[in-house]
From TrEMBL:
Domain Glucosamine/galactosamine-6-phosphate isomerase: 81-311
Catalytic EC class: hydrolase
Lineage of producing organism: Eukaryota, Viridiplantae, Streptophyta, Embryophyta, Tracheophyta
Entry-linked InterPro entries: 6-phosphogluconolactonase_DevB, 6PGL, Glc/Gal-6P_isomerase, NagB/RpiA_transferase-like
Organism from which the protein derives: Aquilegia coerulea (Rocky mountain columbine)
Molecular function GO terms recorded: 6-phosphogluconolactonase activity
Pathway membership: Carbohydrate degradation; pentose phosphate pathway; D-ribulose 5-phosphate from D-glucose 6-phosphate (oxidative stage): step 2/3
Name by which UniProt lists this protein: Probable 6-phosphogluconolactonase
Pfam families, A to Z: Glucosamine_iso
């Protein structure tokens, strides 16, 4: 399974991405600093606890419904166990699949690497294996390591082995990177592919921004607060023109990767932040708590312009909230 971007799309980019309206030329970190102050003094769209032991948590209400989500505020879902999280993540993904496959010719889903893939395991079970319209799924990667597709470090291999090989998504709708290219070449190639898919309306465009709007991004977060391959303190976090870029000095091995940029991430219709484990509780506490410092981590820059963010946390990851 897996399509080679190079094989499918040899045409040059059809257009250059435009700047994100009037705010795009500003440093995203400083933009978010002001925004975060607002977040800390307001509330979440909804907070849902699925816990048998709640003593570690501040009091929160407990209702969550896709229909009731206020897109300007994140929805926070906290689970007693990763098993419960995976059940809820499958339901959330299946509901979005149902919604978008009714509305559009395609359901565009972006995966990250890491532990996220394991947390998607309920999607390959009943009832979802039979009920989801897999034929309309188009699958992308928010970041990929520049290694052969059969290498143990490959995010494609991780997703293929743990998820994609178990569901009937047409192979031509799984957009792996061209692993014959350099990091720079693979990023260019992936961006060209996305532009072609926007032209054919498989991928939406966010009106007024010039950036692609994916239906769902399923993101993980590193213990340092990185998302995709956008790492704390790295200049790539401020990239605001490219759709896909590359890094050759990733602090998390392997060093060479390609990654979507923040304007693309933040053009998404839906973002799921899936975070599990005590080693991430400090960053979760900083990102979702009352910290208003201008020392902004990449995860704190996840802020879709016209989309909804849902956090899926286990109780260990949420223990500092
Ligand atoms: O290729 C990668 O390295 C990933 O896409 C990366 O961004 C990952 O999502 C986080 O590091 C979280 O990974 P874990 O969930 O395994 O901690």
């Amino acid at each position: 399974m897996g399509s080679s971007i190079l094989a499918s799309f040899l045409t040059p980019p059809l257009c250059s991405p435009r700047l994100l309206s009037e705010t795009s030329s500003l440093n995203p970190s400083s933009l978010f600093c002001a925004k975060k102050t607002l977040l800390s003094s307001s509330s979440f769209s909804s907070i849902s606890l699925t816990l048998t032991t709640k003593s570690n948590f501040k009091s929160k209400s407990s209702s969550s419904s896709m229909a009731a989500v206020d897109k300007s505020k994140p929805d926070l879902q906290i689970f007693d166990t990763e098993e419960q999280l995976s059940v809820s993540l499958a339901k959330y993904t299946a509901e979005l699949s149902d919604k978008f496959t009714k509305e559009r010719v395609a359901f565009t889903v972006v995966l990250s690497g890491g532990s996220l893939i394991k947390s998607l395991r309920k999607l390959v079970e009943s009832p979802y294996l039979d009920s989801i319209q897999w034929a309309k799924w188009h699958v992308f990667w928010v970041d990929e390591r520049v290694v052969p597709k059969d290498h143990d470090d490959s995010n494609y291999k991780l997703a293929y082995d743990g998820f994609l090989s178990k569901v009937p998504i047409p192979p031509g709708q799984v957009y792996a990177i061209n692993d014959a290219l350099s990091a720079e070449g693979a990023a260019d190639d992936y961006e060209t592919c996305l532009k072609q898919l926007v032209k054919t309306k498989v991928v939406d465009l966010l009106p007024g921004s010039g950036f692609p709007k994916f239906d769902l991004m399923l993101l993980g977060m590193g213990p340092d607060g990185h998302v995709a391959s956008l790492f704390p303190g790295h200049p790539l976090v401020n990239e605001n023109q490219r759709w896909v870029t590359f890094i050759k000095d990733s602090p998390k091995p392997p060093p060479e990767r390609i990654t979507f940029t923040f304007p693309v991430i933040n053009s998404s219709a839906n973002i799921a932040m899936v975070v599990v484990g005590a080693n991430k509780s400090g960053v979760v506490g900083k990102a979702l708590g009352s910290d208003t410092s201008c020392d902004v981590l990449p995860v704190e820059m996840v802020s879709p312009a016209d989309g909804a963010t849902t956090w899926f946390l286990d109780k260990e990851a949420a223990s500092k909230l």
